[in-house]
Predict the structure.
Amino acid sequence: MEDGVEHLWYAGFDGDVWSVVYASRASGDAEWTRAVYPGSDRARPVIQSRGGNFDANGAYRPVVFRDELGVYRVLYTGQDGLRPRVGLAEGLTADRLYRVSRAPSVGDVVEFSTIAGDENDEEAIPLEQAVDGFQQTLGLGVSSMVVDEERGFLYASSRFASYIYAFDIRDDSDTLSGDDKVNELEAVLVANTDVGATAFRGLFIPDGTDLLYALNSEPESVMIFDLAAVEDRTVARAERDAVIGVLPAPREERDAGGRTTAYIGPSGITQADHLLFVANFNANSVSVYDLRLGAFGELVYEIRNVGENPHALSVSPDGSLLVVANMIGEVRRDVVSSTLTLIDLDPVSPTYLQIVGWIVNQ
C-alpha cells in the first residue's frame, strides 16, 4: 500500500499467452480497478510477451518493489520456448513498466536459418557453389553487400571466408555481348595472404574508381580489390590476384572499452569528398584516410573515444556531419543505451574532425 492505494500485479491469461497485469484500489474498497486501454474497458497488460525477446512465449510471476528513487522494479519470469528466464522491468508509475535490456555477453547464442526463395517463388542466388580453379565456396556468414551499378555486379562479403563474391545482376542479352547470364555467381575475389584474411565485414566502392575497399578483421585492415578483374564469363572463376593494396587499421585483440572478448576490427565504411572513414569496432575509434595520398589513400587521422563499439557510418545530406552508430553506446547499471556520435566535417570549422554532439537512445 502507498498513499492510501493498494497495488496488485498478477499474471493474467487471455486464452493465448500469459501477461503481467496491474490493478489498484483505494484502501478499504472492495473492488479492484484494472489498467485498461485508453477509450475502452479492455484490460491492458503492463508486461506483455514480445517476439524476439526472452519472454516471447509469456510473462508471469511478478515480484515488485520500489527503490529509494521511487522507481518500480519488477522481477518476473519470461517464457522463451520451453525455457523460463528471469527478466527485469522498471517504471516511474505502477501501471507503466518497461523491460530493462542487457547487452549480449559471451555465451549468448542467437540462431536462425534461411531457405532459398519464398512463397512467391522469387529467385534466390545460391552462395555455396563450385568455382573454376577454386574449392567449393562456403556460402555462410554474409556480412555486407554493395551494388556496382556501372558494371552490373553485386559484391558480397562473408565474415567466415577469405574471398569476396561477385554476382552478375544485369541482363546483357540485348547488348553486343549477348550475355544472358543474370543473377548468377560471376567470380570469387580471393584475398591470398599468409594469414588467410578472414572476417570481411564491410564493402565500399569510392566514387569514380574501379576499386573495392573491403574491411577485414584478420588482419585488421582495409583491403583493396581491383574490379577490373571481374569480367562477364560463361563460367564463374576465382581471381587470386584481385587484392592490389592494403591500408592499416588499429589492432585491438580485446574491446578497448567494455570488458568483452568480441574480436571485431573495422566494421563500417563511408566517404565524404576525398576522405574515407572507417569505424573500428574494438578500438572505439574512426580512422580517417585521405584518398588523394598514395596509390589507394593514406591514414591521416584517428578520431578516438567515439563511443562503445562503433559499427556503422553515414554522412549527413548536407555533408556537414559524420554520424557514427555505436552498437553498445553507454552502459550504466547494466542498462545499454545505444548512441549516435556527431563529428564535424566542415574543413573551415575550429572543431573539424572532432566530436560535436551525441544522440542517446534512452
User: Anything to note?
Assistant: The mean pLDDT is 84.
